[in-house]
Design a protein that fits this description.
Number of strands: 6
Shape: globular
Bound molecules: xylulose-1,5-bisphosphate, magnesium ion
Helix content: 40-55%
Structural class: alpha/beta
């Protein structure tokens, strides 16, 4: 029986990359006097590496070996990432990054149906509150019984660790949960933890490999709790009129 929904954040709850993370990384680089500029195309490639600190290290290793050759590289990356988080949380707190269509409604329907809610994300915890408070109001965080974010587990997605952590803190088996993801890396993580997963690709992840997904949808608009329950029990779900198209 379906008991909990576990949500990824970046790309799933909101399209945070274009208006949030990428500009925040670039602002941190400028502030540190670095000539690094991550454009849309490069950022799309860099998303293969999850986690901001890990992404900076990956970029520098490939494109700025002089930076990674220094002894204090770990501290410098940590400082860059702290600045990036400051820029991101400021941007997000303005409310300029809206939730994706259908997200707020699904969260309300899940709560009304007595489902438990959790978050399993690679992003830094402060980013989650900065994004959700303007979008969902003061009770935004208390809606989620469990929030697994950032460095709470050492191995980030596509490792299943953050989903296993969420299951452990919910005290539920994977078979009682559904996950929501937008990326191939995220899907690998949720499936690796044994959780059936609905994928709503975003602009940065469309075209990735979503093999094994329970459903692939344009967005969460029109999704009813009965659809989720039926998917979890493996029943064929007839697609009603007005339902988001399956990609
Ligand atoms: C999100 C990420 C995060 C953000 C940046 O992936 O990879 O690293 O891009 O956040 P997912 P931080 O949606 O699969 O969780 O800079 O705070 O790490
Ligand atoms: Mg994501």
């Amino acid at each position: 029986m379906l008991q909990a929904l576990i949500f990824d954040v970046d790309g799933t709850l909101a399209d945070t990359r274009r208006d949030g993370h990428r500009p925040a990384f670039n602002a941190a680089f400028r502030e540190a006097g670095l000539d690094w500029e991550w454009d849309e195309v490069l950022y799309c490639e860099l998303l293969a590496v999850t986690g901001g600190k890990e992404r900076i290290l990956h970029f520098a290793t490939r494109h700025r070996p002089d930076f990674t050759g220094r002894q204090d590289v770990t501290e410098r990356i940590a400082a860059l990432h702290r600045a990036k988080t400051r820029h991101y949380t400021r941007l997000a707190a303005t409310g300029r990054i809206p939730l994706r269509p259908g997200v707020a409604h699904l969260l309300d329907k899940a709560r009304a149906a007595g489902l438990r809610l959790a978050i399993a994300t690679t992003t830094t915890p402060e980013n989650v509150s900065a994004l959700l408070l303007p979008a969902l109001g003061t009770d935004a965080l208390s809606r989620f019984e469990v929030i697994g974010a950032g460095d709470v587990v050492p191995a980030k997605k596509p490792a299943p660790d953050i989903y296993l952590w969420a299951l452990q803190h919910l005290g539920l088996p994977a078979t009682a949960c559904l996950a929501f993801e937008d990326s191939g890396n995220g899907l690998k993580a949720s499936l690796g933890a044994g959780i059936a997963t609905v994928v709503t690709p975003c602009d940065y992840t469309r075209g990735q490999d979503f093999s094994g997904a329970t459903a692939i949808l344009d967005n969460l608009e029109g999704l009813a709790i009965t659809h989720l329950q039926a998917w979890l029990s493996g029943a064929a779900v007839s697609v009603p009129r007005g339902f988001p198209s399956v990609i």
